[in-house]
Design a protein that fits this description.
The complex is a heterodimer. Chain A is mostly helical. In chain A, 84% of the residues lie in helices and 0% in strands. Chain A starts with a helix and ends with a helix. Chain B is 40% helix and 25% strand. Chain B has 10 helices and 10 strands. Classes of the chains: A mainly alpha, B alpha/beta.
C-alpha cells in the first residue's frame, strides 16, 4: 500500500509546477520516435507469427464438416483484435520499453542527473516522466493497430500456404459478422496498457537507490510489475466493457 | 550569504544532522570538511533543497528557503548552481548542450545567439571551448567536472555548491578545479560552498571552514585559525594529513 501511495503521489507530481508546453513538445516527439521505431520490428515479428500460429492451430482443431472453413478467419480476427494484438503487444513492450524507461531513469538517478534537474529548479518527475507517458499513449495504439493488421495478415499467409483454407474463404471469414467496436476495444486496451507500462516503469526507475545492481533490479521489477498490471487490467476491461 | 540554524535531519532511526547552524559568506569559498559519513553531503543537499530538513531554517540572503512553497523555492533555486561529485552531466547531450540546458529551460526568452554566446563564454572560462561538441562519455573525469562548473555558472548563479569536486581526480587536475572554483568565487563575488575531505583543497581554497563531526558543526572559522584549534576531532582530522604534520614541524 505504501508503494501504491508513493506511485500515486509521483503521478500527482507530474502535473504540478510543469515547464512550458513547448519544452515538452520536443521531448514527446523524441520519445515517440524512440518508442515507435525501436519497437516496430519486434512487434511486427511477434504479431505476424502469433496470427499465423492461431490460424494453423484453429484449422487443426476444426474437424467438423458442418463448420465452414471461413470460421478460421473469423476466429483469427476476433482473437487478434480482442486479445492477442493489445495484450501481446503490451507484454512485448513492457519488456522492451518498460525496461528501457526504468534503466534510463535509474541510471539518471544513480549518476545524480535527476538531482541536478531538481537543483536547477526543474520538476524532474514532470520533465522526465510526462513525455514518456504521453509518447506511449500516442505510439502504443499505433503499434497495436499495426499488430492487429499483421496478426490477421500472418493468419492469412499461414492458412493459405498450409492449404487449410483458400484466400477467398479467409477474407470472407474476417469480413463475416464483423463488429467495429472490437477495434475500439483494442484501442482502449492499448491506451490503458500504455499508461500502465510507462508509469510503472518510470516509477521503478525514478526511485532507484544504490548502484548498477539496483538499476538491473529496477528494470526487472518494472517489467514484472507492468506485465502483472497488464493482465489484471486486461481482465477488468473485458469484464467491465464486454462482460 | 547563506545562513542556516538548528538543522536536523533523520533517515529512519539514524540522525544524520544534529542541530547544525552556520553562516556561509558571500565572495568566499566556504568549506564543509570532515571524515566520511559525518553528514557533509546531507547538509549540502538540505541547503540546495534535494533533502528537506526535519527542523531548522535556511536563509538565502534573508530569503527563507526550506518549508516554503514550490514557487518560492524555484525562485531561489534558479540562483543556485551545483557541481556534483560525478559531474552529473546529461549523457544524451553534448558538452555544449549540457551547459546550455539551464538556459533553454529557465531562460526561454533569451535568443539562441545570446545563449550560444553565454555558453561559449562559460566553456572558455573553464578552458573547454574545444570540447563543446563532445559527448560526456568522450571526456575525462576532470573535464566533466569543469563542464559541471560551466553549467553551474551559466545562469549567473549567486550561490555555487560543489560536492567533493576533487573526488577521483589526480592531484594536478584537482589543483586546476580548486583554482577554478576560487577564481570564479572572487570574480563573480558569489557564495561558494564546497564539501571536501581533501586537505590540499582546504589549504588552497578554504577561506571560511566548517568542520563536521558525527552530524554536528563542531568548529567554524577562518583557515588561518584552523591549526590553532583545540577541538580534538578536528585535530585528529588535521594531523592525519602528512602535509599538516610537516607544516607543524
Amino acid at each position: 500500500m505504501k508503494e501504491l501511495g508513493k506511485y500515486l503521489l509521483l503521478m500527482g507530481k507530474l502535473l504540478v509546477n510543469r515547464e512550458k508546453f513547448s519544452t515538452y513538445a520536443r521531448l514527446i516527439i523524441d520519445e515517440a520516435i524512440v518508442i515507435g521505431t525501436d519497437s516496430l520490428l519486434i512487434v511486427g515479428i511477434v504479431s505476424t507469427f502469433i496470427g499465423a500460429v492461431t490460424a494453423v492451430q484453429t484449422a487443426h482443431n476444426l474437424y467438423s464438416p458442418i463448420i465452414p472453413l471461413e470460421t478460421i478467419g473469423s476466429i483469427v480476427r476476433d482473437m487478434t483484435l480482442l486479445e492477442l494484438a493489445p495484450t501481446f503487444t503490451g507484454v512485448v513492450l513492457a519488456g522492451k520499453i518498460g525496461s528501457n524507461i526504468a534503466g534510463h531513469l535509474g541510471s539518471m538517478r544513480i549518476t545524480e542527473q535527476i538531482d541536478a534537474l531538481e537543483v536547477m529548479g526543474i520538476n524532474s518527475a514532470s520533465y522526465l516522466i510526462l513525455p514518456k507517458i504521453v509518447a506511449s499513449l500516442i505510439v502504443f495504439p499505433m503499434l497495436v493497430t499495426l499488430s492487429a493488421f499483421l496478426g490477421i495478415f500472418g493468419g492469412f499467409v499461414a492458412g493459405v500456404l498450409t492449404h487449410s483454407l483458400t484466400a477467398e474463404q479467409y477474407i470472407s471469414g474476417i469480413r463475416d459478422n464483423f463488429h467495429g467496436f472490437d477495434i475500439f476495444f483494442a484501442l482502449i486496451k492499448a491506451f490503458v496498457f500504455a499508461f500502465l507500462i510507462s508509469s510503472i516503469s518510470a516509477f521503478r526507475g525514478y526511485y532507484t537507490r544504490g548502484g548498477a545492481l539496483e538499476i538491473g533490479k529496477a528494470s526487472t521489477m518494472a517489467v514484472t510489475h507492468s506485465c502483472i498490471a497488464i493482465l489484471i487490467a486486461d481482465y477488468l476491461l473485458a469484464q467491465l466493457i464486454l462482460g | 550569504m547563506i545562513e542556516f540554524s538548528h538543522l536536523n535531519k533523520t533517515f529512519g532511526d539514524k540522525q544524520v544532522l544534529k542541530d547544525v547552524s552556520g553562516v556561509f559568506e558571500r565572495g568566499k569559498t566556504n568549506l564543509i570538511i570532515g571524515t566520511s559519513g559525518t553528514g557533509k553531503s546531507v547538509l549540502l543537499k538540505c541547503l540546495v533543497g534535494i533533502f528537506e530538513p526535519d527542523t531548522g531554517e535556511i536563509l538565502y540572503d534573508q530569503r527563507k528557503f526550506n518549508g516554503e512553497s514550490n514557487d518560492r523555492k524555484q525562485e531561489i533555486r534558479r540562483d543556485i548552481g551545483m557541481l556534483f561529485q560525478g559531474g552529473a552531466l546529461f549523457d544524451s547531450k553534448t558538452v555544449e548542450e549540457n551547459v546550455m540546458f539551464p538556459l533553454t529551460i529557465l531562460a526561454p526568452t533569451m535568443s539562441k545567439s545570446e545563449r550560444l554566446d553565454r555558453v561559449d563564454y562559460c566553456l572558455k572560462r573553464v578552458g573547454l571551448e574545444k570540447a563543446k561538441k563532445l559527448m560526456p562519455s568522450e571526456i575525462s573525469g576532470g573535464m566533466a567536472k569543469r563542464v559541471g562548473i560551466a553549467r553551474a555558472i551559466v545562469m549567473q548563479s549567486k550561490y555555487l555548491f560543489c560536492d567533493e569536486p576533487n573526488s577521483g581526480l589526480d592531484p594536478l587536475t584537482s589543483h586546476v578545479i580548486d583554482e577554478l572554483i576560487k577564481d570564479i568565487t572572487h570574480e563573480y563575488n558569489i557564495t561558494t560552498v564546497v564539501v571536501t575531505h581533501d586537505m590540499n583543497s582546504v589549504l588552497e581554497i578554504g577561506e571560511n571552514i566548517m568542520y563536521m563531526f558525527e552530524g554536528e558543526n563542531v568548529w567554524q572559522g577562518a583557515k588561518e585559525n584552523i591549526l590553532q584549534t583545540t577541538v580534538k576531532p578536528l585535530q585528529d582530522f588535521l594531523f592525519a594529513n602528512k602535509l599538516i604534520r610537516d607544516m607543524e614541524r
